[in-house]
């Protein structure tokens, strides 16, 4: 009886040791994030100053302090907690046909939504936008987003449409496995 117990415990101990050792190796191989060196920070700051002095940088800075820019930044502040936590935002579709002036018909498609009284834009490639063809103005949807973007060429804050659902049915879910979550 004792021999049987020892015969069962011995393989268990060996397997446990191997699993623990493998776990330790995996933890050790993860690269640790390295803080930027002083030279790297200085180079990044120099690049930013160079861009801010360029015509595009000057245009952006003027837009940022304009009423339109301030409005877009304020709308960003209203949803940043939802963006950071990747949580549900209740939205109402206000336009499914928005198109920038002089835009090609094969270019990006835009969905305009209202969240907490503010308008937001979501950009999709035509292939992804096909999944949203059933949406109509005044439809209530749930949106989740991981990021936002500013542009002086757009009237509203641009939010990434990473997840869109209507009536508990997922209409669109961005696949991050293709690009390694970048």
Structural notes for this entry:
- The structure is a single chain.
- The chain is an alpha+beta fold and 182 residues long.
- Helix content is 43%, strand content 22%.
- It is built from five helices and eight strands.
- The chain has helices spanning 2-29, 38-53, 55-65, 67-85, 126-129, and strands at 89-95, 109-115, 118-124, 140-144, 148-149, 157-159, 163-166, 169-173.
- The chain has an eight-stranded mixed beta sheet.
- The protein is extended and about 85 Å long.
- The mean pLDDT is 83.
Please give the number of β-strands. Answer: 8
Task: Specify the helix fraction band.
Answer: 40-55%
Radius of gyration: 25 Å
User: Outline, from the CA principal axes?
Assistant: extended
Write the layout of secondary structure elements.
Elements: H1 2-29, H2 38-53, H3 55-65, H4 67-85, E1 89-95, E2 109-115, E3 118-124, H5 126-129, E4 140-144, E5 148-149, E6 157-159, E7 163-166, E8 169-173
Parallel strand pairs: 3-6
Antiparallel strand pairs: 1-2, 1-4, 2-3, 4-7, 5-6, 7-8
Task: Give keywords.
single chain, 5 helices, alpha+beta, 43% helix, 22% strand
Short description:
The chain is of the alpha+beta class and 182 residues long. It contains 5 helices and 8 strands; from the N terminus they run ααααβββαβββββ.
């Amino acid at each position: 009886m004792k021999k049987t117990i020892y015969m069962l415990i011995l393989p268990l101990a060996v397997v446990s040791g191997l699993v623990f050792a493998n776990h330790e190796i995996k933890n050790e191989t993860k690269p640790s994030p390295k803080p930027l060196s002083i030279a790297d920070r200085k180079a990044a700051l120099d690049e930013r100053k160079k861009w801010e002095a360029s015509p595009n940088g000057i245009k952006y800075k003027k837009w940022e302090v304009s009423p339109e820019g301030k409005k877009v930044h304020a709308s960003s502040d209203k949803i940043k907690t939802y963006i950071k936590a990747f949580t549900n935002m209740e939205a109402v579709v206000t336009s499914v046909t928005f198109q920038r002036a002089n835009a090609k018909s094969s270019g990006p498609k835009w969905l305009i939504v209202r969240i907490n009284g503010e308008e937001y834009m979501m950009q999709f490639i035509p292939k992804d936008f096909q999944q949203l063809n059933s949406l109509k103005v005044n439809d209530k949807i749930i949106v989740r987003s991981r990021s936002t973007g500013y542009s002086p060429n757009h009237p509203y804050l641009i939010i990434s449409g990473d997840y869109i659902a209507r009536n508990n049915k997922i209409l669109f879910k961005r696949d991050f496995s293709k690009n390694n979550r970048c």
